[in-house]
């Protein structure tokens, strides 16, 4: 079965698109005609996925590569600024970047890991969606968030959020 989408003229920013579900999403957007922003902390992986996006883009659209850490607000501001400077807008924001660090309630690093999880999986989503709306408030923005399933914080060796 093959599904066909048409995102010609649209700009799609997918966080955590240097691997996994985010990479697959970015490649599918590129295949469907969108201008795509590939981003993550790992520059090599970001470039590899950007090349794959270019390869599947029927119009040969060049992908924007932005190396950024979603837990750093200044990186997120730069991500949005660079996207708007390059493409003039953002139509689709996919909040996909996320981590899942299994940890037990008795672990000495439990609280630090809890904070790291929340900064990556929740705070970044709120801040990035907020600044996208500020920058492009006059243009319609569709946003999608892939979140981790909420696991019980009290369980042993499970992801906290
Ligand atoms: N796979 C599952 O079964 C599953 C289940 C439930 C929820 N989810 C959620 O779905 C999303 C994608 O899952 P996945 O399996 O594709 O994960 P993955 O393969 O581990 O990919 C995670 C992506 O997030 C990026 N990332 C992580 N921390 C980051 C940070 N601080 N700053 C910027 N980018 C960061 C990584 O890029 P860099 O390493 O380059 O930074 C990577 O591209 C995640 O939010 C995950 O929690 C997945």
From TrEMBL:
Q: Which residues cross the membrane?
A: 125-146
Q: Name one Pfam family in it.
A: adh_short
Q: Which UniProt keywords apply?
A: Membrane, Transmembrane, Transmembrane helix
Source organism, top-level taxon: Eukaryota
Keyword Transmembrane among record annotations: yes
Q: Which InterPro entries match?
A: NAD(P)-bd_dom_sf, SDR_fam
Is this entry keyworded Membrane?
yes
Q: What is this protein called?
A: Uncharacterized protein
Query: What is the protein's species of origin?
Result: Oppiella nova
């Amino acid at each position: 079965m093959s599904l066909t989408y048409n995102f010609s003229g649209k700009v799609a920013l997918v966080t955590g698109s240097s691997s996994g579900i985010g990479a697959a999403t970015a490649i599918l957007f590129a295949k469907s005609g969108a201008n795509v922003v590939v981003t993550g902390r790992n520059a090599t992986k970001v470039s590899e996925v950007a090349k794959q996006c270019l390869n599947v883009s029927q119009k040969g659209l060049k992908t924007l590569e932005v190396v950024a850490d979603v837990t750093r607000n200044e990186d997120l501001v730069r991500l949005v600024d660079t996207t708007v400077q390059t493409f003039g807008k953002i139509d689709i924001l996919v909040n996909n970047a996320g981590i899942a660090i299994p940890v037990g309630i008795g672990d000495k690093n439990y609280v630090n890991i809890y904070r790291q999880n929340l900064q990556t999986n929740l705070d970044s989503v709120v801040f990035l969606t907020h600044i996208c709306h500020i920058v492009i408030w006059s243009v319609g923005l569709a946003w999608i968030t892939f979140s981790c399933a909420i696991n019980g914080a009290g369980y042993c060796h499970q992801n906290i959020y």
